[in-house]
Sequence to fold (343 residues):
Amino acid sequence: MFGIIQVELYNPPVYEIATHNLAKKFRRIFPLGASPVVAVDGVDLRIERGEIYGFLGPNGAGKTTTIKMMLGLVRPSAGSVEIPGGIRARDGRYRLGAVLEGNRNIYFRLTVSENLRYFGMLRGMKPSEIGGRTDELLSFFDLDEKRHATAQTLSRGMQQKLAFAAATIHDPEILLLDEPTLGLDVATARAIQVKLRELAHKHGKAILLTTHQMDLAQAVSDRVGIVNKGKLVAEDTVDGLMGLFKRMAYTFETRTSDIERVGLALSGFEHTISESRRPGLALVTVQLQDSKDVFRLTRALEAQGVIPERLSESVPNLEDVFISFTGEGAEGTNARARGGDVE
Fold:
């Protein structure tokens, strides 16, 4: 039978949660006889103790469905989820916490403090523990003044703060965070970045993070997995993934009247020429394998009498890697007909 496997071990493995050949298909009602939608297709993940795992992919790639299966909210079509230490700790507290993007993670008719008390009790906390923990979280998220306000009266950003607080009220060992900084102001988003690193690297939490903010993923992730069309297409450290794309791009502007000579100079280079925002100029991008090749580039241009303007280097980042594997920008959506949102 498919589902969550709970295994109590005296010497548990380093990883806190893992998936094995996890898959999910959704039946489509219309049109009649249509093939099922494959949301997740054989995904193997291992989230280790003390690490932040960036789980990245376009909209509709299967990220949220994977997280819901890890939480037991969606039944897998195949494969399994393994939590070696079990869902509950020895003191009865739940070991998992989650924020799900696009879902109501809090109760709108409860106040801020009532939400935290409810979720604390629900996840196994003792009543005597909740008050102090609530004060700590409300202070961190700057929600003290909203303690007695109902959640439905909060702004979107404040509701997201409350959702994060509710997910962490019981100090879980495993955190599954789906777009946790969505709607937050810059200062709070940065504070959460610091908090995530502290939770993982200082307190040993295992954190899975999905985000469309490539700068956030690059800043906090110890490892990154990229999923596309339901499949895990790449997995490595951030540096390891970017190391696959060591080529650097150099850009410069040149007069449109020099385009022919630029083409001759760059005949031995991979390059593109596009229109510049400045009238009478063209923007040239040249791909180089090594920074030393820039000297060969400048010599080739000089030989044709071309003097480049605004020559600058662009080193690949995580977004470049993401686009290379998915063919889409971080905010892009797959152009597949899915018969509904199955991410």
The two ends are 23 Å apart (CA to CA).
